[in-house]
Known about the structure:
The complex is a heterodimer of chains A (88) and B (381).
Chain A: E1 2-4, H1 11-19, H2 35-40, E2 45-47, E3 55-58, H3 65-82
Antiparallel strand pairs in A: 1-3, 2-3
Chain B: E1 3-7, E2 10-12, H1 26-47, H2 58-61, E3 62-69, E4 76-82, H3 95-114, E5 144-147, E6 156-159, H4 160-169, E7 175-189, E8 194-199, E9 204-208, H5 214-222, E10 230-238, E11 244-255, H6 261-267, H7 285-298, E12 307-310, E13 316-322, E14 325-332, E15 337-344, E16 347-357, H8 361-375
Antiparallel strand pairs in B: 1-4, 2-5, 3-4, 5-6, 7-8, 7-10, 8-9, 10-11, 12-13, 13-14, 14-15, 15-16
Amino acid sequence: MSVYDGDQITAAAAWRHYINDPAKPAPSGVLAITQEECRRQDLPVRPDPDTFPAHVLIDFREFGTNRTKRKSERLRDAAVNRGWQFQP
Amino acid sequence: MPSVAFWRPRLRGARFDGGEIPLQVLPDLAALREMVIDVAKWRYLQDNPERQRAPRGFADKIDLNLAGIDSGSAEPVINMTTTEPALPGIGLPYQKFLSLARDDIAALIAAESENGSAPIAEHLPNKFLAYFNRIGRSLRDDESMEFPMSNGSPPAKLTKETRQRLLQRSNIVEFTEEVTLRGTVPEADQMRMSFELQQVHGGKVAGPMPEQHRDTIISAFDGYKDNARILVHGIGRYDRQNRLYGLESVEQVTLLDPLDVPARLDEFRAMQDGWLDGAGLAPSHSGLDWLAAGFQRHFPDNLPLPHLYPTPEGGIEAEWSLGAHSVIFEFHLDTHEGDWLRFAKEDDDDEDSQTLNLDDANDWQWFAGEIRRLSGAESPE
């Protein structure tokens, strides 16, 4: 899963960076998860500066489809509970 | 009043299978009556070239009436009636011309349906094609009107496609068509009684705001910033390039659930390939049509609606949070299969999954049944 590093870029700047690509659907805003929440789901997190400096990947490859869906949902719920970090 | 049997066009399609005709088809028959009488007048003048006009009261003396529907089939029984006494051995006044008009119209439709390039002038002057703006307007994709031919040939068949081709060959600049639209209401004018609908996928169209629908439309206008949406059923205006540019009339307006499935699927129509960091496939429009139709047909109204998301593979994922359980259902728009996954939120070992064939109504029924069971919703009577 492709995300932005909140230590390197603000939520508002991440949104502006994302919408620069016209092929992407317009997002409603920006949500956030923590490294700890990823760790609890046994999901490795690694920087990917080759794509762009603030780019980070959360690696689901170790898990099958059903486990991936479960873990994704838990991360999503954590993000929603935290609330929007930015909305246009 | 004397009357004689005149015509029995047959309506074919799923809506008519029970032998009943929806009232919304009646305007098509009313337009057919107008065309028959107009063509009959033309026929009279062809037969009487010394006359400049049809006889006074031509249309008053004779008429076409709906006498009933043939039981067991969707065949409106149309009789010709007259206010004049029928003369023995001669028949009703002007009966010959109405019968010729009927045959001309059937021949025109048959020629267009079979050939598609026959000159209209062989059958009727081009001006009469404008009647097809209303005749056949209520037909849906799988439907047709069949008109018996007096010469014993197979019935002339009018479908949506045949009607479109007839209209393209006419001189009219604006077509009308039944439409069902979903969108928000960015503008409403209560003095002019009009409003604008911003379609979920598509442009803005303006239309009249009937008094009986004012409250619903204004409610959507008030909720515009919260993305309140309405479903509008009415008659749309199209130009000759088949672009919708307005609403001629509004018949039904309904405030939509925020999770309305067809509206959400419409949002995905603007997606393009490469939407996910260059890798995502956009869901196909035909796939979205299939899924919207499937939900309308098979998913009961009283069940909770899902949140919908596109998948990188071009599918659609539906998610429900149902108490202690989560359900994730992935629709594969290309194969018409669906992957069901239910799991308990707090128990990693409690889950079940399977693949369903969504071209099978039984699998939809199972799927809806599980959602009902997990949500605690009641079964419909």
